Amino acid sequence: MSDHLRSWGLQPPSRPAAVRPIAWSDQAAALVNAPGGSRLPYGRGRSYGDVCLNNGGTLIPTSALDRLVAYDPASGILTAEAGMTFGDILQRVVPDGWFTPVTPGTRRLSLGGAVANDVHGKEHRAQGTFGRHVTEFVLWRSDRGRVVCGPEQNSDLFRATIGGLGLTGLITQVTFRLLRIAGPRVQTETVSGDFALVATGEDPYAVAWLDTSATGGKLSRARITRGAFAPGECALARGGWTVPPIFPSGLLNRSTIGWLNRLRWSETSRRQVVTPEEFFHPLDRLTGWNRLYGRRGFYQHQSVIPKAAGTEPIRDLLRVMQRGGGASFVSVLKAFGPLESPGLMSFPQEGLTLALDLPNAGPPVLKLLEEMDRVVVAAGGRLYPAKDARMSAATFRTGFPQWETFARYIDPAFSSSFWRRVTAS
Amino acid sequence: MKILIVGATSAIALETARCFAAGEGASFCLAGRSAERLETVAADLRARGAGGVDVWAGDLTAFTAPAEVLRVAGEVDLVLIAHGSLSDEARGAVDPAYRASEILVNLTSPMAFAYAAAERFRAKKAGQIALITSVAGVRGRARLFFYGSAKAGLIAFSQGLRASLCRDGVIVTELRPGLIATPMTATLKHGLLSTSAARAGRLCHDAIQARRDIAYIPGYWRIIMTIIRLIPEKLFQRMTF
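YS: structure for the whole thing
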């Protein structure tokens, strides 16, 4: 079973000493109190690096904890168990004219994971992070038992758990506010232009795809897609394809990625009405797309460059990557607005966030990624723990100076591979 | 549509019920051991569009349970019998009390519920009984034959019950899952043939609605089990799967 408990980037390799799934919340007390080494909840394995891994410790998979607890179609308040996915929630609420208030790039993540990583999407300027919409959750701790947390109740633990990487205890259920939508379709507009355009416009959703193979004067060119919900027929979660685990590492390399990027590039503007799935989760149609990178997997480098630093650090990141021989297939730039998250360790800050997927081609890639880290740190930015498998402890601590305050809220029985790595001295 | 589910905290039963709640707006009576867990399932089904949900918590293996549960459930159109336990083979080999209690859960008690439902449905000349068996009951193999023998009994029972009810307008649907990823099977090795509980539930729902006699879940297990049944005994006994 532990074979399945990988992270999305398939890096780093990790093996838990024990796997103890939770299927009912009445098992939570025993699981958090069981003797033995450190433990960590494992949702759906959609974080890329090691925040969801606990090498040598215990993992508590939550996927069977997937039930709705309460849902009021009139008010849009929903309570569900922590292992339920956004996809399952959408299936239920979209016909009633609701949507998740924040929609990350996959709908196959768990609700607990969305809280623990304080996820964001293409709507950060309008909605902020997911944690802003959470009104309550139930947390099980080894030292305090069942703790109900909300903005006014145990608010310090509430703040620490949002973006708390699963370290503050086992979340068993979450209550949050849904978003009222105009209809179950998305009106989109895609244009080509400078990537900085992503931070402009009135549409609630915006994302830019960068052609990272372009150089010189074309370095800033991007395809910018904006969207807003629109009326239409409800259509969710159609079938798709599953990627078999047969692809060799190295198939996606600089030359094939450059070639694919050129194939995808277009100058024409396009307006169309699409399904939410096509707009928010195009990669979900390709189940297991991470396997395209082969057994060695890939690294994602997602950073935020604060508004004050301007757009030049983004171009620097692209230049550094190109100079180092890297190429990224999925290269996404989004804007973060000023809306603050309640989360103590929340990643977003006002500015631009750039995500680059780099195939794991061994030590040269690690060196290149470190060079990119230096650009981010110099700009006053930081890296997204949910996407990270390798940043140095120093990079982490510079980006998250509040980490020591946060550490006081960690459950003494909990730990993760990520946390041990970034706090090692 | 009103459905009685016996063993309603089973993952496959829950997924099947979800389909009936969302698709048909069905009402439910949920029977099982733990009141707290049944309430969790009830809340989930209500939030997914179920008409009404009642709960009966108690010992399903008690002799009096079937009559009591059917009385509490009232008029029902479908009885889904889903309780069971993946027996520990090694313990079954050495512990007679465990052996007796496992046979009780996996065979005697499901039979008792099916008999009680059959009596009720025969009287009104309508109704459907669905039983969850297992591919493990199709041919006994070294790794899983204690569990498999109870399921084999339930397979033969379903066939006979179907024959005895066929002139009364009562349908008996046997759902025969392969390897499904549920908490019950968490200790088994899962490979390419493993199916999610959600998919299994959808297929069970469809098989029940289509009034199938026997439905492998998913259907490709029919091919696999046909081949497995054709292997000569002398060869089969040496195979280690």
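YS: worth flagging: The first helix of chain B runs from residue 11 to 24.
IM: good catch. Also Chain B touches chain A at residues 9, 11, 14, 22, 34, 36-37, 40-41, 43-44, 47-48, 182-183, 186, 190 (CB under 8 Å).
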